[in-house]
Amino acid sequence: MSQTLFIHAQLATMSGLSGYGLVEDAAMLVDGDRIKWIRPMDRVQTPAGVEIVDCKGRLVTPGLIDCHTHLVYGGDRADEFELRLEGASYEEIAKKGGGILSTVNATRAASEAELLDQAGPRLEQLLSEGVTTVEIKSGYGLDRDTEIKMLRVARRLGEIYGIRVKKTFLGAHALPPEFEARADDYIQQVCEDMLPRAHAEGLVDAVDVFIESIAFSVEQAERVFDAAAKLGLPLKAHVEQLSNLGGAVMAAQRSALSVDHIEYLKDSDVTYLVG
User: Do residues 204 and 169 touch, judged by C-beta distance below 8 A?
Assistant: First the structure.
């Protein structure tokens, strides 16, 4: 295997007690796809036949992890930026059929190939910034076939780009229009049809739910979490983004991998997230 020696680098080793385990003016020898050693520059003897890369004091870190993305979707929401600039809130836009539901319509209409073509450049941007592991959520289908289509695209992105992709089922992201005023019926479909089918195809690494006044209640989320637990799947949750419904505490008590957004989390609830 070929060897590459990186010299005059600031190396974030992620070890020790100092911030990021930073080693100043260091060298790192990479043998194929493995780091062979890390040393201060004053202790380096250059092996014969290696490629040398002078980092000139730049910071070298482990591959970055983007643990929350909605990378696969159809259409865009460019028109909503103007509404936000004019003072409209996220909740107001959502209640008028914008936000998540506008993207749902475009995602349902797109083919798997079209979604793949659109998602590729988004992933390439992350790769250019040092991301080597990415979580990709579904949640813009809100029906079995489109949710599965999104997760297949997520899996295919990992295959094409050689990056680790973690696929999160977010079928309970919003209430689809065909289930208006029937949220409990939709949650039943998520639990009994959509999630089991996606899991059977090997497309689910974790299960997420949006707990909010414009999405689903804590009780409805618990039903989804119960279904995920039966399949042995870890949990995540979108919580406390627009209000505090207690979703973060519930998810933490169920040992969720993460609770995301949490803008309205109470200070007193932070302790539930520690551990």
Answer: yes
